[in-house]
Write a structure and sequence with these properties.
The complex is a heterodimer of chains A (258) and B (278).
Chain A (H helix, E strand, L loop, with lengths): L1 E9 L5 E10 L4 E5 L6 H8 L7 E6 L2 E2 L5 H10 E4 L11 H6 L8 H6 L4 H13 L15 H14 L4 E4 L8 H18 L2 E5 L3 H7 L2 E6 L2 E7 L5 H8 L9 H6 L1
Parallel strand pairs in A: 3-8, 3-9, 6-7, 7-8
Antiparallel strand pairs in A: 1-2, 1-4, 4-5, 9-10
Helix pairs in contact in A: 5-6, 6-7
Chain B lengths: L28 H20 L4 H9 L3 H7 L9 H31 L8 H16 L2 H12 L3 H24 L5 H8 L4 H36 L6 H10 L3 H29 L1
Helix pairs in contact in B: 3-11, 4-7, 4-9, 4-10, 5-7, 6-7, 6-9, 7-9, 8-9, 9-10, 9-11, 10-11
The chains are: A alpha/beta (258), B mainly alpha (278).
Chain lengths: 258, 278
């Protein structure tokens, strides 16, 4: 479970990216966060695994108080939370399998990592994760030789290899074309449903958000302005979240048609 | 007429658009001052060391036993046991010095950067250490160890170790500034420790450049091992110095020419290898 209580984040430059947020996300929920760029979507996601520290307020993730964790406590928390990135963040020069094994680092002793020796159990888990996103045949291919959609599937496999209870996805389809975006979103949805993992996704395309979300959270200037099921989220609601009328840029289908 | 699309002349501007090219800017004061400074410095220093072309030509054409030795070098020394052993010692020094120095250089380079060493205080200590090691030239290292450890190959090895450490650390840390931060973020977000993150997210990115620097360092060490031998740090340099001090120029030049050939061959090999790396 994730619980923000009265949580705020102000960056050193003075930008307030989260304002008095109260939000509870139950285990197994598929939550999509929408909002304009700069509304605080990335900040919210990165607060969950401690990449962005709260300036004030409380945040509980899986019974841990994120604001008071020491370094090793933070590593323990992060091992339970998988993350997927807009730019995939793969090491291009190494193989797909080694990239996925990065998800096992928390469980591996440092000397084994230094020597590049991964345990059989870790390789087994990495292979299972690759199989789940149907890219296991590319295990020994260099990551630089994959297409964008394939890379993001490797990114998902790396998160899955952690055996996480939560997966955070920060604009996972922003660098992909529409058909590939749907493939990636379907994998995320399937993972949430079949493995009972809580999935939190940042999106800026409204049609993608309503198509996949169980629950939509709308942010505007760092504050929560909408929280409800995807079915309740119509054009009027989005206009209130965005604070302007909708344009073709806001939906993937219409943007693709341009 | 300012709103037309780029590259399409609007109808009313039939005049040659190239006429609107702004006046070419002249040299900046900075360029003028630095150019003048460079010329003045060159002339002043040339006068100070008494450089003249007449002197150079006169000295080169005067009968000189050293130069005569160069015209008929004596290669028979190659087959003498002591010279051959010295050659092999030089190669061993270069290989060992490179391997040892470069192995220590990798962690030192990593620890001197923000990503590899988040602690500002420890980072500045590593940087100061690296700067000191880099400020000392190879010949000085050799002199230090010849006085501290004594004449012989061990001093040469220690000198080349520190020299390699300096070179490879500097080159590698420059590459570290340009790595892709994405994998670093991914490793940190997965709960990896610092060393694990460096090994899996950073080292694979710099490995080709690092390997290339190690090979380049080997080339440097090969040449360096001849020079440091002159002060008694082992290898072929010691043998060259032996003949030089006895005035046996034919033998000395024989060794120098052979050394030159060995360096050329190994460098050609190394350069080909390095090209395939990056």
């Amino acid at each position: 479970m994730i619980r923000f209580s009265n949580a705020s984040v102000t960056y050193p430059g003075g930008v307030q990216a989260m304002r008095d947020l109260d939000l509870t996300i139950e285990p197994g929920e598929f939550v999509v966060i929408v909002g304009l760029s700069g509304a605080g979507k990335s900040t919210l996601i990165r607060a969950v695994n401690g990449l962005v520290p709260l300036t004030s307020g409380q945040l509980q993730v899986n019974e841990r108080d994120v604001t008071t964790l020491n370094r090793s406590g933070m590593r323990d928390l992060r091992s339970e939370v998988g993350m997927i990135f807009q730019g995939f963040n793969l090491v291009d020069r190494t193989t797909v399998l080694k990239n996925v094994l990065m998800g096992r680092l928390h469980e591996a002793p440092t000397w084994r990592t230094l020597l590049g020796l991964y345990s059989k159990a870790d390789v087994h888990l990495a292979a299972q994760a690759l199989d789940r996103v149907e890219i296991i045949d590319k295990a020994y291919v260099r990551a630089s030789n994959l297409s964008g959609g394939q890379r993001q599937r490797v990114g998902i496999a790396r998160a899955l290899a952690q055996e996480p209870s939560i997966i955070l996805a920060d604009e996972p389809v922003a660098s992909l074309d529409p058909p590939t975006s749907h493939v990636v979103m379907r994998y995320l949805q399937q993972i949430g449903r079949e493995l009972g993992i809580t999935v939190i996704v940042n999106l800026h395309f409204l049609d993608l958000a309503t198509a996949y979300a169980d629950r939509i959270i709308g942010l505007r200037d760092g504050a929560l302005v909408f929280d409800g099921p995807g079915s309740e989220c119509d054009a009027d609601v989005f206009e209130s979240i965005y604070g302007r009328s909708l344009t073709a840029d806001d939906t993937m289908a219409k943007q693709a048609a341009l | 007429m300012t709103s037309g699309p780029v590259g399409v002349a609007s109808p009313e501007s039939r005049v040659d658009g190239a006429a609107r090219l702004p006046k070419k800017p002249g040299p900046t004061p900075f360029t003028i001052v630095t150019t003048l400074g460079a010329v003045v410095m060159t002339v002043v220093t040339a006068r100070a060391v008494g450089f003249s072309f007449e002197g150079l030509i006169e000295n080169l054409t005067r009968p000189n036993s050293v130069v005569e030795g160069l015209l008929n070098p004596d290669f028979s020394q190659i087959w003498s046991e002591r010279s051959r052993a010295a050659f092999i010692e030089t190669l061993q020094l270069a290989v060992l010095g490179t391997v040892a120095g470069a192995s220590v250089a990798l962690p030192l380079a990593l620890w001197s950067t923000r990503v590899g060493n988040p602690n500002t205080f420890l980072r500045s200590i590593v940087r100061i250490f690296n700067n000191i090691v880099r400020a000392i030239p190879d010949l000085l290292w050799a002199l230090i160890f010849v006085s501290a450890v004594g004449i012989g190959a061990l001093s040469g090895l220690l000198a080349l170790f520190f020299f390699s450490l300096a070179v490879t650390t500097k080159l590698t840390s420059d590459v570290l500034d340009g790595i892709d931060p994405g994998p670093v973020e991914a490793a940190n977000a997965s709960g990896a420790g610092l060393t694990q993150m460096l090994r899996t997210a950073v080292v694979p990115q710099i490995l080709p450049s690092y390997s290339s620097f190690v090979l380049y360092n080997f080339e440097l060490n090969l040449r360096s091992s001849a020079v440091i031998g002159l002060v008694g740090a082992g290898g072929i340099g010691e043998r060259i110095e032996f003949f030089r001090s006895r005035g046996e120029w034919e033998e000395m030049w024989g060794l120098v020419v052979m050394f030159f050939l060995v360096v050329m061959i190994i460098e050609a090999f190394s350069v080909t290898l390095r090209r395939r790396l990056v």
